[in-house]
Amino acid sequence: MTAKIKAGIVGATGYTGVELLRLLSTHPNVKVTAVTSRSEAGTSVADYFPSLRGIYDLVFQTPDEAALEQCDVVFFATPNGVAMNEAPALLAKGVRIVDLSADFRIKDIAVWEQWYGMKHASPDAVAQAVYGLCEMNREHIAAAQLVANPGCYPTCVSLPLLPLLRAGRLQKGMPLIADCKSGVSGAGRKASVGSLLCEAGDNFKAYGIGGHRHLPEIKQTLSSLQDGIADGFVFVPHLTPMIRGMHATVYLHLEDGTRPDEILREFYRSSPFVDVMNPGSTPETRSVRGANLCRISIQKAAGNENVWIILSVIDNLVKGAAGQAVQNMNIMFGFADNAGLQQAPLLP
Amino acid sequence: MTAKIKAGIVGATGYTGVELLRLLSTHPNVKVTAVTSRSEAGTSVADYFPSLRGIYDLVFQTPDEAALEQCDVVFFATPNGVAMNEAPALLAKGVRIVDLSADFRIKDIAVWEQWYGMKHASPDAVAQAVYGLCEMNREHIAAAQLVANPGCYPTCVSLPLLPLLRAGRLQKGMPLIADCKSGVSGAGRKASVGSLLCEAGDNFKAYGIGGHRHLPEIKQTLSSLQDGIADGFVFVPHLTPMIRGMHATVYLHLEDGTRPDEILREFYRSSPFVDVMNPGSTPETRSVRGANLCRISIQKAAGNENVWIILSVIDNLVKGAAGQAVQNMNIMFGFADNAGLQQAPLLP
Amino acid sequence: MTAKIKAGIVGATGYTGVELLRLLSTHPNVKVTAVTSRSEAGTSVADYFPSLRGIYDLVFQTPDEAALEQCDVVFFATPNGVAMNEAPALLAKGVRIVDLSADFRIKDIAVWEQWYGMKHASPDAVAQAVYGLCEMNREHIAAAQLVANPGCYPTCVSLPLLPLLRAGRLQKGMPLIADCKSGVSGAGRKASVGSLLCEAGDNFKAYGIGGHRHLPEIKQTLSSLQDGIADGFVFVPHLTPMIRGMHATVYLHLEDGTRPDEILREFYRSSPFVDVMNPGSTPETRSVRGANLCRISIQKAAGNENVWIILSVIDNLVKGAAGQAVQNMNIMFGFADNAGLQQAPLLP
Amino acid sequence: MTAKIKAGIVGATGYTGVELLRLLSTHPNVKVTAVTSRSEAGTSVADYFPSLRGIYDLVFQTPDEAALEQCDVVFFATPNGVAMNEAPALLAKGVRIVDLSADFRIKDIAVWEQWYGMKHASPDAVAQAVYGLCEMNREHIAAAQLVANPGCYPTCVSLPLLPLLRAGRLQKGMPLIADCKSGVSGAGRKASVGSLLCEAGDNFKAYGIGGHRHLPEIKQTLSSLQDGIADGFVFVPHLTPMIRGMHATVYLHLEDGTRPDEILREFYRSSPFVDVMNPGSTPETRSVRGANLCRISIQKAAGNENVWIILSVIDNLVKGAAGQAVQNMNIMFGFADNAGLQQAPLLP
User: Fold this and answer.
1) B175 to chain A: which residues are within 8 Å by CB?
2) CATH code for the domain of A38
3) Does the beta carbon of D243 lie under 8 angstroms from any beta carbon of chain B?
4) Which structural domain range is residue C76 located in?
5) What is the chain B residue with the closest CA to A178?
6) Cβ contacts (< 8 Å) between C183 and chain D: which residues?
7) Could you report the per-residue pLDDT of A130-174, keeping only the tens digit for each?
8) By the 8 A CB rule, do C21 and C45 touch?
9) Do residues A212 and A306 share a domain?
10) Is there a domain that residue B145 lies in?
């Protein structure tokens, strides 16, 4: 048996942090050696997350105490604005990094600063970073030292569009609409009235109607793949009363004669994590709960031959966050694609 | 005090039936004198619905036993295909009817038969029926003997569009997309695997992707209000893991220079049941839970000036079913608009 | 029509506050003239609670701005420790008060201070206060200037026990166990990780295992009704993943020959808000959702003739808080018992 | 690598069936070679359970078509009454069986027939069967050909009591009360009004108050471990609005001087699937979601020194059903205890 690499997690007290811990607990090639949290330093992981009792005997440390520079890979599961300050020192020491925050996702610094409302601390690292949508950038990820793990909405929307955009099949000048629905865990594990069970439960609403931060991220992907499509893009996120899961309903116009189902099947033929279902299928979020999967279907709208409808589901915490981060790590280190990612979805 | 009218409810064991009973229990002008159910004949309403203990001492009767012809108004809360067979005899005796099923909603009998998969038993009654979208057809409803209470999706989608269509402001040739989300009570109170808590809970999915029965109903309304719009209409319903509530996100194109917010405010200025919220607002379903309200906002899409977004919420069992039925009855009998409909939404 | 009394609500931004506003909106004898909130002063009620748009045009004021002393009745819907400081000045001006917090519930000041961890600011007011369990203290409430509205658990547990204790039928020396389950709204509308949908949803747990503040409150009631019973009392609260609703399962031992079902029926024969169901019934929380009701059943344990089981349900925000507060006000002012409390439960 | 054993699942379309498929999909020593369903014969597993797309390429067969006799082990995930008819033929051919239904759990045939309302078809098999509470009967299970997998409530209640009963520490003549709460998946995947999201959601109630079938099963375990305890046993199950999870709150009396926490820790010191938490802990169901774990704590009741309180949680579908079945198989075949059972709980 080969030695395991050492992994560190910065900011491991949130939902993406505990999800990384869950997934890595069965990874054959990785040992988590450091978890940091400023607020919980000194607390054991097992006390903080009773679900991990008996699995980890780690204790949260401050970032200073933790010997992150001795890790082979460090995951940042931190709020936006942390990794851009802390990653460069680790990069300088040769540590490879997967950042689950938004710090390195947007190449245009001015755009990032506008949407995230702060000055970027390390534009050089942005330039160096590879956008970690695995099915789009696999080769670059393999060689990358710094991977910017995509947002959940961008993953759910971009994966089904990727093959069509690559093939240049979207019709210019027509609207491209992504009506997206997310479980509440997307809001993270922080005290907030809006995420209370009594506020978000038994309720449905749109949010971010004035512009959500994942809008420029998706537009960047669109622009990089097919000219003239990003301008027509509309994105409305909604909050749905469930814990995990994300559903994108995408309304699009394709060039005449396009057979999108075939394009998607061909593109994802050998992808273990993207499942192209038959036209007419309605993928449901629970069919990917806890698993690093995206399930997709595409069909014409009933009663309007000009509009195509994509349905796309992911678990926002797995393929939309921690799972894709592990997938990125697997690519970076040459591990098996599905190492640590073999669990079947939890249903019901 | 004037005498109360007598109301009967046919098929009162479902969710729209129990909701009618709840709303009518505080109606100052109505006394429910007959409730029918073939399967539960002989059972008391209070035993069947413990929530109504102490409120009703009625017993379910078979339709034959119940003296429905002595009622002033009869509500049909039955599956599709029942009212078209049973309503004509009551109409002949002068009883006024509000049908909550789909039997009399579609004027084109061929279209109805295609979508509902059966032969229509009383085309004459269809011709006579008034489509009971109260804010659209108030005068006709007042004079009607037979009102076809609209479906939940058609109510939620049509109310915000109505003023814009009346004003002829929708742009032809462009898609009009209604991405709708419904709580599970829309599926009714029948044993069905798909509606189990363990199937529909903590899950989100589209359904009816090949064509939902509310599609022709909405198209009929669109066609009646502005030419050339129905063809571009796209409708995708989704199931969201909550009990009550419906949310429509409508993507539309308006003629240049349209000020839709002003048009909606003007149109609904004196409507007690349609609430036009400020642009930028995100109405949430719980803000109408249990109440006969539709809350609406309209704004331009962030990042795409050509697309407008309507957000519209109702309680599918109230304004989307039983509440609108009571509202129709109030109009038919000249009662106060808000009689029986004054309860504030239940929040949280 | 007689003039309405003026009511004020202190601390109206929480769940009991908005519930008071909902219930009072249909009360024939009351007009809410002042609502206070330090944090939201200047915000309109309708902006803060969109469910109340079109119903109230009040604006939150600071306690100083609001002319509370001109109210006939003031409800305190504040955290513990507020009313004891602010109520005395209003009492001195003749205002009648219903306090929904715990400040005046416990007669023994030392016990209160121990459990609530602060010095009591107005022991005199405690002495003057009447414990507002309506079905127990109706006469005293009618004459009271200050009513201490009971806690939710004490209401749910005490109502079914009250007739048995009054009749002296509980067996001494045997355990009296209340295993209670509450919806999450009992934790209030404050940002707290433990009440997030992602923490409290799809989860069940006990809490307060080391001693919950409602324990001494229930013991005080037990002691006042039958000697020697409080010592055997055991209380374990649990959190259940729903918004509203409380269920108590009480295990008790009765003197030989007791017919508890008859005692309960007789005691509550003319009580509009306590519903004694048949033995064998299993009252469910949704059967009282939104209504000022307590439904009860009592039966022997299957397989153990010595143990009796009481099942008791309330809506924690209504009969367990705001509804009982309105009921107390109705008694204090001689209004009809059910004024403002006539709504049928919301089901489903 | 050693060859894998062949496993069959009879009745694999329910929740315990799909859970077996999930768990066995990562088992290093097992290959599922046959799944049967009379109603779904001919349907592929992946079509029926989209969560298993890409994991299994099995097709449901009728029991006759499936070559179950060629399996090394067959799991019965069938309704009560099926295994007792079908298991004997397989036993005769040397197949080892784990039955997840209740057919072989109760040794006293008369008791079984009374509670299950049918004549038992194979009393001989009952005599041969080993009750598969792994931590109680490990040696017998290892040698067994037929294992009766325990019910969910019996597992959740018996595991924490087992060490105390073995040590003879329960006090006779005093009540032993198990107040239990289950997620809705315990009711299985069958169309039933009571399990609809709109009936069971946002609701809490007791059920089976007149006697639940798991009562005699628990009593049998109690009787086998300590004399005179079963008579005082009281069991009340409740339905809680969540999918997975079970919580038992057990009220008990112990002999003076007992240190139950120490007894439990000692007993379960080397058990990988029972986690004794510190007194004062409140184990929550989500801390075991998806995992084959039982977490326990025990402490004295606040305010009543005579009563002890056990809190015990399992995932009813895992340690309460399919997980324990896999654990039984592991013991029977000498596999590693945690083979196929290594997944960390899914949280949130």
Assistant:
1) 175, 251, 304, 306-307
2) 3.40.50.720
3) yes
4) 5-128
5) B179
6) 204
7) 999 999 999 999 999 999 999 999 999 999 999 999 999 999 999
8) yes
9) yes
10) no
